[in-house]
Amino acid sequence: MKKEKLHEDSLSLTKILEKLRQEYWQNLAEAEEKEKQEGVELLTFWMSGENYGVDLNLSRHLLKPPKIVRLPQVKDYVLGIFNLRGDIVPALDLRRLFGLKITEPTPDTRLLVVEAKGVQAAILLDRIGDIVFAENKNLQKITGEQTPIPSDYLKGYFLPQDPKGKILIYLDLEQLISSEKLVSGFKGA
Q1: Which CATH entry fits the domain spanning 39-187: 2.40.50.180, 2.40.10.340, 1.20.1250.20, 3.40.50.150?
Q2: How far apart are CA 179 and CA 45, in angstroms?
Q3: In the 8-state DSSP scheme, what is residue 42?
């Protein structure tokens, strides 16, 4: 009799634990989905005096520019390639690609290695900013007057939190990295 009672208690405990486990994973999935709907974490940086942001989830490494090997017969925005822990990564200057003001490198100059759609590339930055959470409801549609970057490569912009601040231009890295314009830079100058 005691063995049967013990067995029943064990079964009900197993059922309770399984139910708790299911509820945990369901709540976790719902929280992640809600977070995706509400906003995005952006890594911000400066290029040519403008404030830009990219999805933090696409950022892989931030480093001081290493020795970059120039490649023959490539567009001027392809700075070259470098070795990152055994991976060969192209280094790109988006300022040159989009005709932005070119500034001299400073001690704050960095390369941001990003990965989108299985492709890794490094973007030259004037300086790094912050990690910010931007609410989707505050994302504004961008027009040609706000930036010389084609709208195909932009998700929009966020107004500054500080009245004296600058707008935050949200780059669409997935679109940019896989764009024909970028890939054509490796096909000759």
Answers
A1: 2.40.50.180
A2: 22
A3: E
| Token pair listed for 116 | 């989108």
Instruction: Tell me the pTM.
Output: 0.73
Nearest 5°: phi and psi at 21? -65, -45
Find the helix or strand (DSSP H, E) in which 26 lies.
Answer: helix 2-38
pLDDT digits 0-9 by tens, 55-86? 999 999 999 999 999 999 899 999 999 999 99
Element (H, E) at 136: none
Which residue in 44, 60, 186 sits closest to 125, CA to CA?
Answer: 44
CA dist., res. 133 & res. 126, Å (int): 22
Asked whether residue 6 carries a pLDDT value surpassing 90, the answer given is no
Query: In which order are the strands placed within the sheet that holds 87-92?
Result: 59-63, 110-116, 119-125, 87-92, 78-84
Q: 179 is written with which tokens?
A: 């764009």
Residue 158's beta-bridge partner residues? 139, 168
DSSP character at residue 69 = B
Q: What is the pLDDT of residues 137-175, one digit of tens each?
A: 888 888 767 678 888 899 999 887 777 778 899 999 989
